[in-house]
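Notes, Module 5: Reading structure tokens.

Key idea: the token line is not a picture. It is a compressed description, and you learn to read it the same way you learned to read a sequence, by spotting repeated patterns. We will look at two proteins. The first is printed below with its tokens.
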Amino acid sequence: LFHIGINSRNKEEAQDTAEIFSRLFLMKATETDDSYFAGKIAEIMKGPFLGTNGHIGIAVNNFNRAVIFMKKLGIEFLDEGYIEGSVAYLRTEIAGYAVHIKQKY
């Protein structure tokens, strides 16, 4: 598990949520253009994003091999959010969450 992503309505709600996670788990909250991170475990989006509720990020050791393997299983990926060699979102949500794989660094 790389991180969970939580969709919020706006920047203020995202910041509040990140601060709660940060206090609870003694992690630093940091801001990016699109989100706030609470440490490395939670990414709180500044507005609606992929997934009804948010997203789940899974780290993989070899991104390209993971994509090939998953495609052989019949899994399809979205064009949106795809970053060659780094990030790919599955076409299907699971329990209201978008799921993406990400190259482990």
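Here is the second protein, with the sequence above and the tokens below, as before.
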Amino acid sequence: MTRLFGTDGVRGIANIELTPDLVYKIGFASANVLADVNAHRPVFVVGRDTRISGTMLESALVAGLTSAGADVYLAGIIPTPGVAYLTRKNGFDAGVVISASHNSFEHNGIKLFSSDGYKLSDEIEDQIEKLIRSCDATTDLPSGEDIGHSKVLENASREYEDYLLEHMRVDLSGMKIAIDCANGASFYIAPEIFRELGAEVVAVGVDPNGININLACGSTDLSLLAKIVREEGCDLGLAFDGDADRLLAVDNKGNIIDGDVIMAIIAKDMKDADKLVKNTLVVTVMSNLGLMKMAAENDINIVCTQVGDRYVLEEMLRSGYVLGGEQSGHLILLEHATTGDGILSALRLLQALRNSGQDLSQARKIMDIFPQILVNVQIANADKAKALEDLEIKESISCIADELGDKGRIFVRASGTESIIRVMIEGENFEDIKQKADLVYQQLHDKYGVGK
């Protein structure tokens, strides 16, 4: 049976896969499990992004939580890291974010944080999932004064904004910055923060209507931001995803700056200031070989984990590292936050640029990017494991790996949040790796692809 919780909570198409009934059960089970763990009446804080399904699923979640006797504070529309911060600041037992992050509007998700602001452990998620699958959500219900209640958490966004300004205050006077908020959770707070720090802000993706989140904007599509930067003569552009836990950027010429380059710039700045603990950066196996080369040239150690910011965080906590992240733009600055935070990462990047006296077009040259192909194959969740174990496909992958040798690599994995298998190939020659990627893509699509 497929695990309900993926690498980033529970995801699905709202009202089809992620139904109000399922979300009610997630709320009910979460409250019961955390009540047992903490041995008292649990208190949750709930935030969401701008999706049209957000209020529907929020109502179902609150019903599940309160029917199990938990109290709930509603933070409204707020970035995911804002919920993580509010959870630990206010001593809540858990935080819940209703968001599908970078996915399109018809998707939604439920992501839970523990009382210390970290994503729930696999063990706690398994306990919640076990209770959900038992479907025993109608017995031993509290009544009377034992029923939970919900109320609005006043000034939730302002609390989070004040925290960011206190911990990463950068003088942005004289800078003109374009910001793309993906019509998502940062649509109001992000422009406010950068203006308060002195920047002239050109904001796009700040008109959410419930169905335009991540639509041709934000960190999943930088073409609009690049166009705005060039046309408006901005110093750089910053792009967040739907729940603002990711950051990607463009320089003043519209060149895309991915998470690897951003990490390289910040890591070098932290090392120069003797703040990069153990001189180590934690990345995933998807990071570009150019980042590994840059690290070696600057005496920075690289530790690789499997794909997923939760695995990056686990390694950071286990070994005491303070900086890690993913090429996709999830950066974890453990000195300041317990999860990826797009706005915080943007401020830290700007601080590094200020410290170096460089603009982003100069700073990006810190690493050479190896040609890399990333293709996505639409495959039903039920078929992903079978496709990855297919002997013919495994043989093709093995042969390509042998051909690339130590001058490249191939990595094929199932997405933890979407019905997709991702094929990444890296090497010295673009046309060569493109042909190899097309071969694997075609095999996967022909045998297991949706609509084959």
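Summary for the second protein:
- The chain has a mean pLDDT of 93.
- The CA atoms of residues 414 and 421 lie 4 Å apart.
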